[in-house]
Amino acid sequence: MSMESLPPASRADVEAYRAERGPRHLQWSPILLGAFAATAMSFILVTFGASVGLGVTSASPTWRDASAALWILSGIYLILQAIISFGLGGYIAGWVRNPLAPGPVEQIEQADGLHGLAVWALAVVMGAVLATLLGAASLSRNPSAATSARTSAAEPLLSYELDRLYRAGRRAPNIDLSSERAEAGRILLTASSHDGMSTDDRTYLIQQVAGATGLAAADAERRVDNVIANAKTAIARSRRSTIILAFSVATAVLLGAIAAWAAACAGGRHRDGAPLPDWMVHSNSLDRRRTALP
Q: Is the pLDDT of residue 212 over 60?
């Protein structure tokens, strides 16, 4: 039977189908309230974690002395704060939402869960925009926005190695080594490549260090070799911490969606006075204490 030969559905059938599906539109006031609450709670928890040293990355050179256990603990804390933050936002959205019409429990929980998922999505977007704005503001305040020949991506990562590379007991005043440091940083970044630093780059780096510091050729060669080894270690540690951070962020966002859905369903059950699932039954103790007080 072709689509053209199908009889048109009656209005009663359409209304019955809509009643069976229930209302599908979202209420944006609870979603906005939950998203703001989730973003605020996440900011508080991340700031607290950074204040006690739970950070996967750091601008200080001493971050490379941190152990892998601290990186993993920081990643676990990032995941836990996401679960708490998104759970709070989802619960608020489910508790504040007004059910439009009575219906089966499954449809009500689905609508509450969708509101929690909307809170999660909006909070993720708000967090990404906030992080982008903070990063852009920090870059605009950075006075080192010079030409590309005088800057290098290796400077924040290998700043200590570059300091050691061009350290000299005596140097004429008013000598600017920014270009040399930037070039040396770009060369040191090749040390962690598959083929490693080329012989020509190593020889050139030795000549530059000997000319800038006044060291003998043998001393300059030993210094360059030590800096190359330290640069490899620093780059490897930075790569591991970046992988842990990326995995932690992805896991936190994914588990945050699940927490927002479940918390929104729990908030809806509290709103309607329905019993919670077995895995949430301990949260009913607060309601029992409230009813016992009068």
A: yes
Whether the CB-CB separation of 231 and 64 falls below 8 Å is answered with: no
**If we measure between CA atoms, which residue out of 195, 193, 192, 211 comes closest to residue 203?**
211
Number of C-beta neighbours around residue 96 at 10 A: 17
Chain Cα centroid distance, residue 121: 14
Structure confidence at residue 89 (pLDDT): 94
Cα distance between residue 124 and residue 250, in whole Å: 11
CA angle at 36 for the pair 251 and 283, rounded to the nearest 5°: 70
Share of the chain above pLDDT 90, in %: 21
pLDDT digits over 125-156, tens only? 988 888 788 777 665 665 544 444 455 667 77
DSSP symbols for the chain: --STTSPPPPHHHHHHHHHHH------HHHHHHHHHHHHHHHHHHHHHHHHTT--S--SSGGGGGS-HHHHHHHHHHHHHHHHHHHHHHHHHHHHHPPPSS---HHHHHHHHHHHHHHHHHHHHHHHHHHHHHHHHHHHHH-TT---GGG--TTTTTSHHHHHHHT--S---TT---HHHHHHHHHHHHGGGSSS-S-HHHHHHHHHHHHHHH---HHHHHHHHHHHHHHHHHHHHHHHHHHHHHHHHHHHHHHHHHHHHHHHHHHHHHHHHTPPPPGGGGGGHHHHHHHHH--
Rounded Cα distance, 146 and 48, in Å: 35
Q: Please, what is the angle between helix 217-272 and helix 199-213, to 10°? A: 110
User: Could you tell me the two tokens for 158?
Assistant: 């290998």
